[in-house]
Design a protein that fits this description.
Length: 172
């Protein structure tokens, strides 16, 4: 699914957030931890800014490069601030975008593939870097819980959705 579905509603979700929920500081610490631990072979060749972005229905994260190439912007779905989403969901979301960075998408590094998800290169790279287990947990949680979580997070009325729509991350 390439279209971005965004919620227009404010809903009740922000009121459910607590001081324990994740913030941009958490994201920055996670980015640094992942980079130092699993992506230390990848040169950090520009300024990388990461923050929680929109509450997309069909997208968890995205990565873009400024026109000058001086700054990479990573946005993570703001619904993942909630601790009701297990740690491995925002963690793998950030790692997924770092794989794109390493492959030259949303970064000044040489582009390694014609398309960012060509032949499952993101999943392969995550597994080779030692993040395969968390990636499996992430995929399982998304398949089983995402639309229910999204519904609860964006509506004051509990809804259970069984829409046959796959969740995937940014194409670039
Ligand atoms: Zn992607």
């Amino acid at each position: 699914m390439s279209a971005i579905a965004e919620t227009e509603r404010v809903g009740s979700f922000p009121h459910n957030l607590t001081k324990d929920d994740r913030d941009n500081e958490w994201l920055n610490a996670k980015l640094d931890f992942l980079w130092n631990t699993y992506f230390s072979d990848v040169a950090r060749v520009n300024h990388v800014k990461i923050e929680f972005g929109k509450r997309w229905k069909g997208r968890l994260g995205m990565i873009t490069l400024s026109a000058s190439g001086s700054t990479t912007y990573i946005a993570v779905n703001s619904l993942l601030r909630s601790r009701q989403a297990p740690y491995f969901v925002p963690t793998i979301t950030v790692a997924h975008e770092l794989v794109h960075y390493a492959h030259g998408f949303g970064s000044p590094l040489p582009r390694r593939y014609a398309h960012p998800h060509q032949g499952g290169v993101v999943a392969k790279d995550l597994a080779e870097r030692g993040l395969g287990n968390e990636h499996r947990l992430y995929r399982k949680w998304l398949a089983e819980h995402w639309y229910d979580f999204y519904g609860r997070a964006t509506s004051p009325i509990r809804r259970v959705s069984s829409l046959p729509v796959s969740v995937q991350q940014s194409r670039g």
